[in-house]
Amino acid sequence: MATRKRLNSYEKAIVEQLQQLFGYTSVEAKDILEEYRAVLGLIGGYPMAADYAEYFHKAKLEGRTGKEWISAILKRREEAAAVAQ
Fold it and tell me: I need a labelling partner for 41 at 20 to 30 A (CA). Which of 27, 34, 35, 66 fits?
């Protein structure tokens, strides 16, 4: 069995919102958070937990992996930096 990182209060709130808003079980919601956890740091800030729950739910429905999402964010940042020069 794979071990999970402990959830901080903000991550717990996102898991709760995934359950309340979209009907995921606790395990499903934690799996979704784990998949997209690295995206939290890239997006930055602290939007409402419900906002992240919605972002993650949409990404899951679209079949987007966390790695794909991270890659897209980094690509856009590189493009923006190139334009800014």
Answer: 27
